[in-house]
Amino acid sequence: MADKEVKYLCDLERLRVSFNEFHDMDIKDMPQYGEYCLLELKEGAYTAGEWLPSESKKTVRGVFIRGTADTVDAKEVERWHSLTRYDLTESLETEGVNWINLGREEEEGVNNVQFDGFEPMTGRKKPKEEQFCLLIMKDGGLAAGRWNKWRNEPGGAFIYSSALASHSWKNVWAWTPLSTDKIFAKELEQENEKKREKKLNKNPVADPELFKYGTDINVYYEKALEKLREEFYWATLPMMKKETPLWQIAPLHGKYVFGHVSKNYYDNSDIVTPWTEGTTADEFIDFLVKYTHNKVAHCNPEERFKFGTDINVYLEKAFNNVKKDYRWLDKKMLKQSWQYDIQKVDGDFEFVRKYRDESEYSVYDAPSAEQFIEWVENDYQSTALRANETVDSYKVNHGHVEIHGWNLESYVFYKLKSGDYKVNVTAGDRTAGGSREFFITPYCFEAKTYEEFLDRYLEIVPDYSFGLGKNDLLPDSKLKKFLGY
């Protein structure tokens, strides 16, 4: 895209752009590799794309790329016309011009296609989502692309090639739609369906059997709560509503339904997933009992807060448990980790936490005192490892190792400033990956032999999960020496 931007004086409201000298799909007369072309399809529609020929030069094979996973096969194309060989600046700068002819004038009306109805990009009217358009650029060139107002580009952009290459709306002077294609037709149908749905849902009806207790969802939760309390005396509405997603009463296809409601990522509209396991209000209440049963069962305050409601009792237990192996841990280090408390939330005591300098606590939904202490221990262990600097490392030399579809990328032992050891394992595939870090507990080093050490170590970092086993590590004399054996 050129940097220049000119002041256009032509008559945009009446402007026609006339394409002459279309090229047939002939092996002797094909676009250059990567050339962007206006296309006349055999069905009579018009679109555009970037030419990508196949390797064979003896036949007309290849595709015109319009975007990621959006192509037109050469077999569908009748004729093509270059969009990249013209600069319309002179005509656009001429006051009152309302017709621009591209090609030999004598062909006008014989082998000619005209486009009009151009709209200024700065006007109120914008293309419809996924609509493929012919574009007049601000630098005087011609282009095309599929309008996408959801692109990261503020204001929208026209996608025109693979990897979501796009023309920002800021670089486009005017646009007019090309023919409807399958992608745009699908988008139109979805948009029409939204309009139909909105119209139907203006005055939704309620099935008297399904909503005999009204259309307030809390009434149904409260009736389910009465049944839960027959088994769990401690049950409360906040406990039930920990089981998410929450059930709501929402309109769908002109009727009220029980359902989950989520937001569409693209336009923030409601997506309602209806409940389909019954047809009456009492059946839904029984379903709510089952839906929240497990969550409420694990909210017994006598189990969750068996050591009282002083958070320091729980934190002290976690600290002492971790200190046994992570000997260098002190409480000053814990200021750099999560902060915990026990607070009342919606009338119920809850474990809560916040990270470092965060201003607000959030619920930390541990089902029991033991589980909460274990979670805190994991946090303290990570904090301790971050605080213990590494002073040496040894990377295990391994060949190709596959771990449940992932490939082992690195397996590194580290010696820490305290004299302890840890190991970091990294694995992945072409699109994803991850690392895990493990502290090698002092118990492993109480082993008298290297072989016995490996038996204990592999209980922490098992071969079936992380790739290397006893047969791989035992012959490694350098690792044996690195670990002090």
Strands, helices and their partners?
Elements lengths: L15 E4 L3 E2 L11 E6 L4 E8 L8 E6 L2 E4 L3 E6 L6 H4 L6 E4 L10 E3 L3 E2 L11 E6 L4 E7 L8 E3 L6 E3 L3 E6 L4 H19 L16 H12 L8 H4 L7 E5 L2 E9 L6 E5 L6 H17 L3 H4 L6 H13 L14 E8 L2 E8 L6 E2 L5 H19 L2 E6 L6 E2 L2 E11 L4 E8 L4 E8 L1 H4 L4 H11 L2 H4 L3 H4 L3 H6 L3
Parallel strand pairs: 1-8
Antiparallel strand pairs: 1-9, 2-7, 3-4, 3-7, 4-5, 5-6, 10-15, 11-12, 11-15, 12-13, 13-14, 16-17, 17-18, 19-20, 20-21, 22-24, 23-24, 24-25, 25-26
Helix pairs in contact: 3-5, 7-8
Indicate how many domains the architecture comprises: 4
- Gyration radius over CA: 34 Å
Question: Which stretches are low in confidence, meaning pLDDT under 50 for 5 or more residues running?
Answer: none
Q: Approximately how much helix is present in the residues? A: 10-25%
Mean pLDDT comes to: 91
- Continuous helix count: 13
The strands making up the biggest β-sheet line up spatially as 2-7-3-4-5-6
How would a crystallographer describe the biggest sheet?
6 strands, antiparallel
Category by helix and strand content:
alpha+beta
Q: Cα distance, first to last residue?
A: 65 Å
- Overall form: extended
How many DSSP E strands?
A: 26
Please indicate the percent range of residues in DSSP E strands (runs of 2 or more).
25-35%
Structure summary:
This protein is of the alpha+beta class and 485 residues long.
Task: Record keyword descriptors for this entry.
six-stranded antiparallel beta sheet; 4 domains; alpha+beta; 485 residues; 29% strand; extended
Commentary on this structure:
This protein folds into four domains: 12-181, no CATH class; 217-299, no CATH class; 303-382, no CATH class; 390-482, no CATH class. Helix content is 25%, strand content 29%. The chain is built from 13 helices and 26 strands. The longest helix is centred in the middle third of the chain and has 19 residues, at 182-200. It is extended, with a radius of gyration of 34 Å.
